[in-house]
Design brief:
Elements lengths: L4 E2 L3 H9 L4 H9 L3 E4 L6 E6 L5 E10 L2 E9 L6
Parallel strand pairs: 1-5
Antiparallel strand pairs: 2-3, 3-4, 4-5
Length: 82
């Protein structure tokens, strides 16, 4: 499992809380994603995955370096079709 340092600013902490995503949920999905990709609008990396309580979320972030992550946003999304 990769190790990342997450930089949590006051702004992103407030934004994440508004969307009902905990810091732990966001970090879990980035570290152990079900799926990864890139944002069409910003080009930032994206991770999708499940929270401990079973919600499927998207986590958008910036990679500062190989081990440092700056969260951008996270929110619940519909589960992918199987």
């Amino acid at each position: 499992m990769p190790y990342f340092d997450f930089i949590w600013t006051e702004e992103i902490t407030a934004h994440r809380a508004e969307n009902g995503i905990s810091q732990e949920d966001f970090e879990k999905v980035v570290v152990s994603p079900e799926r990864v990709g890139k944002s069409r609008s910003s080009g930032n990396p994206i991770a999708w995955g499940y929270t401990e309580d079973g919600r499927y979320i998207i986590a958008v972030y910036q990679k500062i370096d190989y081990a440092t992550v700056l969260p951008v946003t996270g929110y619940e999304v519909p589960e992918p079709r199987k």
